[in-house]
Amino acid sequence: MGKNHQSEFPEQHQEGQPGREHEMRPEPDYEPPHYHGSGKLKGRTAIITGGDSGIGRSVALLYAREGADVAIVYLEEHEDAEETKALVEGEGKRCLLISGDIGDKSFCERAVKETLDAYGRIDILVNNAAVQFVLDSLMEITPESLEQTFRTNVFGMFFMTQAVLPHLKEGNSIINTTSITAYKGNPQLIDYSATKGAIVAFTRALSQSLAEKNIRVNAVAPGPIWTPLIPATFPADQVKEFGQSTPLGRAGQPEEVAPCYVWLASDEASYITGQTLHPNGGQVVGG
């Protein structure tokens, strides 16, 4: 049986994006109960942006458990990143930590070079890093905040993919993190929702571009998931009730999302490209 996940959280708020996992109460659940690796990703190497915490941490752990070495790209949450590195190494795999801003094209190129220097190959790219800022009206979105959201969520995805793509081979995989907001919207996250919609379109278009090379491109669209972005985004009273509006009546945990990334990167998903998985607590979406 799985865990009994809670439906209410203590009121809390963090300043600054994208948030710190070690300051959350409770900390997110990143390890699925009774998950046993079976060598699905044996011998492969993955780059995970935003891999220090939240969904990225859980993906890094499960990738290592399935046999992959991991490079984690993150902004500056060093304590979270070191904890994730320890988890990966605890599975007997290597973990490279690379700190910087994916909105900077030259940094993305450097991150890829460091990964190749360390591992000699890249088989999987997980574009997961993102920021979001709560604003009550479209009129409150400034040119500066709009650019920051798009630079991290969209430009960073383009830059990282451009840097990795020349090194991918037949059978390799790109997995992008979009969001339920791409399908349902969110009145307090208009610019964030727009970036996530762009990621869905990017995934579909790139999958067609790379199909003849047999490089698969897919996405995961999580619903409300308990990650550092939540207390770093919403006021404390909204954090307390986060996720309760879903049919399952609660927020999801990273450990309930990460297996999607394992499957999409594995040979079991060899006929899947241009698609999006929806771990969202039962919310019905179109598209």
Can you offer a commentary on this structure?
The protein is an alpha/beta fold. It has one domain (37-277): Rossmann fold, CATH 3.40.50.720. 37% of the residues lie in helices and 11% in strands. The longest helix is centred in the middle third of the chain and has 22 residues, at 143-164. The radius of gyration is 17 Å and the shape is globular. The two termini are 32 Å apart.
Helix content: 25-40%
CATH class annotation: Alpha Beta
Topology pattern, helix = H, strand = E? EHEHEHEHEHHEHHHE
Total DSSP E strands: 7
What is the percentage of strand-forming residues? 5-15%
* Count of the domains: 1
Q: Let me know the largest β-sheet.
A: 7 strands, parallel
Task: Work out the helix count.
Answer: 9
The CATH homologous superfamily is termed NAD(P)-binding Rossmann-like Domain
Which CATH-level-2 architecture? 3-Layer(aba) Sandwich
List the defining traits of the structure above.
Rossmann fold; alpha/beta; 287 residues; globular; seven-stranded parallel β-sheet; 11% strand; 7 strands
Task: Describe, in short, the structure shown.
By secondary structure, the protein is of the alpha/beta class. The protein has helices spanning 54-65, 78-90, 105-119, 143-164, 181-184, 190-210, 229-233, 236-240, 258-265, and strands spanning 45-49, 69-74, 95-99, 124-127, 173-177, 216-220, 276-277. Helices cover 37% and strands 11% of the residues.
